[in-house]
Design a protein that fits this description.
single chain, 45% helix, elongated
């Protein structure tokens, strides 16, 4: 949400983006360490076949286990601490795997290939930041009418949305928020990693929104926490301006619900 205030979420995002792999020791602790350096570590481990489960930038128990497995395979003490010797080993080995898919990307490809081509019974999460609840509720209502199991949120706490979506074991996440500028439909991607399901869903949503918005909402790869931390294909729709969006809310809700339905029938990724 763009409100001009550097609140807790904005501050955490700035802190997370400030770290590069090697700037600090990384290890499993409570509260768990977070940041772009953790995401880069997860990406590299995944390219080498060690499974942190997802590239979410959170050093949790699965990432800790993947670190120890890598250290043992590299002949290092398996203390789970990412220091200079472990980074040097990662640098040596990942230099040979440029362009290789991570374990998480392979898993997502396989899940998409084998997912049921229907909407009925799919677990779909719809969230908003409290600015567009009418649209979010209308999307959820339309999806329930065609047989989807829908969880909906209306809260600016996006980390809560991500955690609860994961705990609920959602298949898809779609978020909407009202924006004053920088409109777009975002999906999770970073250097060397992208959610192919998220990209395909973002493309469907962007095309569906085009007739109803005064300003285009192009697809954009981003590292937003709501996209990174949701362990499922996820999109974040920043739409506006308000004078256009509000009177067209029913049309926008129908367009996004149909985009999700079409994606469930055929994810159309490559």
């Amino acid at each position: 949400m763009v409100d001009g205030v550097c609140g807790p979420q904005s501050w955490h995002a700035l802190v997370e983006a400030d770290h590069r792999l090697g700037d600090r020791l990384l290890y499993y602790r409570d509260p768990m360490m977070r940041g772009d350096d953790v995401a880069e570590l997860q990406r590299r481990l995944g390219q080498l076949g060690f499974d942190p489960h997802w590239v979410d930038g959170i050093l949790g128990p699965r990432t800790h286990k993947a670190i120890q497995q890598f250290q043992r395979n590299a002949g290092l003490p398996d203390d789970g601490v990412i220091g200079r010797s472990t980074i040097d080993a990662l640098d040596r080995l990942t230099s040979r795997t440029t362009g290789q898919l991570t374990v998480a990307e392979v898993r997502e490809h396989e899940r998409l290939r084998h997912q049921p081509n229907r909407v009925e019974g799919r677990r779909i999460v719809v969230g908003d930041t409290g600015e567009l609840p009418v649209i979010a509720q209308a999307i959820a209502r339309r999806l329930r009418q065609v047989g989807a199991d829908v969880l909906s949120f209306s809260t600016p706490d996006l980390s809560h949305q991500a955690r609860t979506s994961n705990q609920w074991n959602g298949d898809i996440y779609l978020g909407v928020t009202l924006a004053g500028d920088n409109f777009g439909v975002s999906y999770f991607a970073m250097s060397g990693f992208e959610s192919v399901g998220g990209r395909a869903l973002a493309q469907r949503c962007s095309a569906a929104l085009a007739p109803w918005l005064a300003e285009p909402a192009p697809t954009m790869p981003m590292r937003l926490s709501i996209l990174r931390e949701t362990r499922m294909p996820a999109v974040w729709c920043r739409i506006g301006p308000g004078p256009t969006v509000v009177p067209r809310a029913p049309h926008i809700a129908r367009a996004l619900a149909e985009a999700i339905t079409d994606w469930c029938l055929d994810p159309g990724f490559q």
